[in-house]
Amino acid sequence: MTIGTTALAQKRADEPVQTIPAMRNLDPAMVELGKKLFFDPRLSKSGFISCNSCHNLSMGGSDNLKTSIGHNWQKGPINSPTVLNSSLNLAQFWDGRAKDLKEQAGGPIANPGEMAFTHELAIDTLKSIPGYVDEFKKVFRTDKLSIDEVTTAIAAFEETLITPNSPFDRWLDGDNRALTSMELEGYKLFKESGCVACHNGPNLGGNSFQKMGLVQPYKTASTAAGRVEVTGKDADRLNFKVPTLRNVELTYPYFHDGEAATLTQAVDLMGRLQLGREFSKDENAKIVAFLKTLTGQQPQIAMPILPPSTDKTPKPRPFE
């Protein structure tokens, strides 16, 4: 959308939320290799689950399930966070156990409840496919092919998954016509109610850990304990990484346990549990209207054509 000169105003630099930053320059060949690996189910024991299974790029970078489905139809322990704009997070996973996207990328491959493979078997699979061997050699300029190169490439692709130019970003950039009066009233409520204390910065979240159930206890059947599982400190129990609100309209259901099915329900619960505030129906609708302005331009992905397996490629074992 081209901003008309009559609507153009000075950028709103004093807001607690910033626009999505420009993507840094990345090696196109590495990004393309990472994209193939992101979509390749052969990195799983079943030969059926890929990174995209839980972080579906057609569905806001998540799977829209309360908890994800892993190997042998196992029920995952936690809601799958979006991969979109995830490079802006201070850490990865709800409990922050991975410091960055590269470290995160190796986790699901070897998790028995997710892709259920091992790093060694995943590398054996890739080494059995000449197309991959050649591509890794060209990208990394070495014959080495290890989990380090695999996760580096996947992380490079994931860094490209940013969603700029949302209506709210255009408003931040000075386009006074980008938001309706109802959406602006919702943003005002969002700030004045205290939501912005945790949901701030360019990703409207992802930059701190906070307790779930700050004012009122959060009742859930989930066994996820949060940050305590990383730090060992009981004070971190039920502390989770604050999720991004970017593209939140697309990433339902909400919270680490997926218990909030709709944005209306999520806003109501967050108001009561975290802020000690009961939003009226009208206030809730205005905040939801604002949240929907955070949907940016989705990545335009050309599906990769994966190199074919060979007789030496380990066979998938979907029913073990």
UniProtKB/TrEMBL annotation:
> GO molecular function of the protein, one example?
peroxidase activity
Q: What is this protein called?
A: Cytochrome-c peroxidase
* Subcellular localization: Periplasm
Write the record's keywords in alphabetical order, separated by commas.
Heme, Iron, Metal-binding, Oxidoreductase, Periplasm, Peroxidase, Signal
Q: Which segments constitute the Cytochrome c domain? A: 29-137, 181-295
What species was this sequence derived from?
Hydrogenophaga bisanensis
PANTHER family documented for this protein: CYTOCHROME C PEROXIDASE-RELATED (PTHR30600)
Q: Which InterPro entries match?
A: Cyt_c-like_dom, Cyt_c-like_dom_sf, Cytochrome_c_Peroxidase/MauG, Di-haem_cyt_c_peroxidsae, MauG/Cytc_peroxidase
Q: Which SUPFAM superfamilies match?
A: Cytochrome c
Superkingdom of the organism of origin:
Bacteria
Main localization, broad class: periplasm
